[in-house]
Amino acid sequence: MSLGPLTVITAGLLWIAAGGILLEVSRLLGPAFDSVKTVKRVWRWLAWCGALIAMCRGLTLIFPGKLVEVSRISVMAPLGGLLVLGLSLAVLDWVMRDRAPPPWSVQFMRLAALIGRDGPVKFAAMAVPPAAVGDLPPPDEPKRQRQGRLAIMLGAIVVLAAMAVFLALNAGGGS
């Protein structure tokens, strides 16, 4: 079997993943909380359109029909998808960094939410400046918790690889 179908499926999955990340960016920029950190509707619309374009590109690569000629796709198609995925992850990191409160305030907000003051908790969560990486306490993670997270991530990678191999083996057509 040639690398052609595997290249096409890899590129399609990378483009779909980039679209999913941009959808999350669009959601995070919206009015999920009080309007302290909400951006203008144009920026949310732009992120949503980028997600739609990336997902359509990925779906047309995986299920081309007569719209896209996939027999001539080179290695640049997955590299382009990987580039867009990396840029989408960078934007997501930038948006999440702007919305993460410092750890000292988290306990206070949880206490206020426990008392039943949800409105002020949402307002305070968005008004507190983000914490720097150096301000965070050293990670105090139990070994079992880290192993569990690694097992889940490895399982997800195995499932995605199995899907890619299955699609690559069955993408030969009816010849």
Description of the structure:
The chain has six helices and no strands. The protein has helices spanning 4-28, 41-62, 76-99, 103-115, 118-127, 143-170. It is globular. It starts with a helix and ends in a 5-residue tail after the last helix. The mean pLDDT is 75.
Radius of gyration: 21 Å
Query: How many DSSP E strands?
Result: 0
> Could you state the order of secondary-structure elements as H and E?
HHHHHH
Note the beta-strand portion.
under 5%
Helix content percent band: 55-70%
The profile of the biggest β sheet is:
none
Structural class: mainly alpha
- Based on Cα principal axes, name the global outline: globular
Helical run tally: 6
Walk me through the topology.
Layout: H1 4-28, H2 41-62, H3 76-99, H4 103-115, H5 118-127, H6 143-170
Helix pairs in contact: 1-2, 1-3, 1-6, 4-5
Question: What descriptive keywords fit this protein?
Answer:
175 residues, mainly alpha, 6 helices, 0% strand
Brief summary of the model shown:
With 175 residues, the chain is mostly helical. It has helices spanning 4-28, 41-62, 76-99, 103-115, 118-127, 143-170.
